[in-house]
Amino acid sequence: MDILLQLIVSGIAVGGVYALIALGFVLIYKATSIINFATGEFMMIGAYFFYTFMVMIGLPPIPSFLLVMFSSALLGLFIERAILRYMLGQPTISIVMVTIGLSSILMGLAEIIWSTDFKSFPPLFPRAPIIIGDIIVRSNLFWGFVAAMAAVILFALLFKYAKVGVAMRATAGDQMAAFSMGINVRSMFTVAWSLGAIAAALGGVIIGNIGGIQPTLGGIGLKIFPVVILGGLDSIAGAVVGGFIVGLVENIAGGYLDPYVGGGVKDLAPFVVLVLILLVKPYGLFGKEDIERL
Amino acid sequence: MRIGDFKQSYAADEAVFRSGTVRVWLALLFAALAVFPFLAGPYLLYMADLTGVAIVAAVGLNILIGAAGQISLGHAAFVGIGAYTSAILTTRLGLPFLVCLPLSGLSAAFFGVIVGAPSMRMKGLYLCIATLAAQVIFDFIFVHWTPVTGGIRGINVPPPDIFGLKLDTEFKFYFVTVPIVILAVSAARNLFRTRVGRAFIAIRDRDISAELMGINLFQYKLYAFATSSFFAGVAGCLQVYLLKIVTPEHFPLHESIRYLAMIIVGGLGSVLGSIFGAIFMTMVPEALQSGLALFQGLDDKLMSYLFPLQTVVFGLLIVGFLVFEPHGLAEIWRRIKDYFRLWPFEH
């Protein structure tokens, strides 16, 4: 029983971070209908930005954190302006491939700039583990969860109340109507990419703080697909719920099944869940069903 | 007068070769392919065999994506299924190469149908991610089902023999690869002259219209998955016998992406494009390596940048082609051909 509780708690903690990264993905998908296969690499680059500012330049954590947000927003803006803008109206496969190509470029650049060596951040939080009842949570995991949840809530508020958030929702709902109401749809695309990049980068900093960073960190980005499909590609609430479900599923399945098959269940389980969900509810839990007419 | 697409009869429109000259060029190509192994060294022949494998797989993927419009991120998994099938059949049952070849195609096609089954309920991005899941799941099975697949150590395969002739060198293997490639390419080319191939194109262009015209969507989507996976399986079988070993490392997600890159760079929906793309994407990493080797004297660390540099160039190629030349090398080739065909006039 203790093991189960322990697995549930770490599942929830990891799920919070997944939710944040998935949010970065959903923001972009909602506004632009582009599925961003480079989300994982945005995350990885964000973690390296943080490493650069804090360890290589030597800034204190909070300014580094703000600089990470600023530079990843610039990265998102640049990528949208330089590449994705030309892909509007192209077939799905082309758009998917452009983001895959992008992820390849980012990964290669990270290897060239920061080398393939494993790196870790200096301790940001007190090392003592957090103890809740009988359960022990690693402090990095706990504070990571808190930070991720805070970011998710901030993004949700921004989306709900801020002017730019309302404009983004309008763009996502009906581009033509938004355009005729005086919303600059193109700049909304740029905003969506910048916000998406920020959310992914924050997730990357948190994950990097938990387990260290490497150019292959972006591989975690693959898990975002089960998360967002589970919740529905265009639903923010779905991203959060999906994040927790995937975090729980992979921890519980990994904890109980790994000894029998020799590891790796953690990476597999989310995809098995994904297939099952797709068979039952192809548009996820909260996704919008496409209705097509000729 | 020689102008753009002017044909005077249905026969001319349906002809396999547009003019007699094409036949001459094709004969020259075959002659070149036949002479090549006698001039080239083992390395070039190995590259040629590797390219052949890539061509078969890329042609298969292009049928699924370029022609039928069904995205798949799991092509490497099907190549892997073909590879493991032939490796297991050879080492356990001792079946000969020529029997393994169609069997590995069929087994990949079988799994292709299973993976393609959800395509009835979803399409586009959702299908893309469903096939991504298939890739991850098959990858897991290759690594973890040790009693059958040999785990991460893989299975060693003896060199194939055909009617007692051992194909233990690249030179001999070349003469198996090239006919299979030619067979695969002409099969794909002729597929689009049949009802099935036309139905694929109709589904890609507008699936609802296709259904109204009496095409059973589900059935034909499964045909597309089966055909594409059959090609992948055959490519997998060739690859096993060429490398003489099969391990899970040969079929990661990145390999699926490489096949996708081939058909993007070559040209979606074009058989010729798949060939160009496969050759191009197999040659570029090698070219990069020899390019870097030229400058090796200047900086000792240069070679350590090779792998990241290959990753960056790979990404740049995909992005560059999609942004600047979405129809790929096949379109460039067509423009060059038209230029000479219409010369000295512009149109």
Automatic annotation (TrEMBL), chain A:
Transmembrane segments: 6-29, 41-59, 65-83, 95-115, 135-159, 191-212, 224-248, 268-286
A single MF term (Gene Ontology): transmembrane transporter activity
Family designation: Belongs to the binding-protein-dependent transport system permease family. LivHM subfamily.
One Gene Ontology biological process: amino acid transport
Stated name of the protein: Branched-chain amino acid ABC transporter permease
Protein topology in the membrane: Multi-pass membrane protein
Matches recorded under InterPro entries: ABC_transp_permease (IPR001851), BCAA_transport_permease (IPR052157)
Keywords, alphabetical: Amino-acid transport, Cell membrane, Membrane, Transmembrane, Transmembrane helix, Transport
The keyword Transit peptide is assigned to this record: no
A Pfam cross-reference name: BPD_transp_2
CDD domains referenced in this protein's UniProt entry, alphabetically: TM_PBP1_LivH_like
Top-level division of the source organism's lineage: Bacteria
Keyword Lipid metabolism part of the UniProt annotation: no
Gene Ontology cellular-component annotations: plasma membrane
Gene designation per UniProt: livH
Localization per record: Cell membrane
Automatic annotation (TrEMBL), chain B:
Any GO MF annotation of the entry: branched-chain amino acid transmembrane transporter activity
Membrane topology label: Multi-pass membrane protein
Superkingdom field: Bacteria
Keyword Transmembrane: yes
Stored InterPro entries: ABC_transp_permease (IPR001851), LivM-like (IPR043428)
Main subcellular location: membrane
Gene Ontology CC: one annotated term: plasma membrane
Alphabetical keyword list: Cell membrane, Membrane, Transmembrane, Transmembrane helix
Compartments (UniProt record): Cell membrane
CDD domains documented for this protein: TM_PBP1_LivM_like (cd06581)
Membrane spanning stretches: 24-46, 53-73, 93-117, 124-145, 173-192, 222-242, 262-284, 305-324
Protein name per UniProt: Branched-chain amino acid ABC transporter permease
Organism for this UniProt entry: Desulfoferula mesophila
Gene name tied to this protein: livM
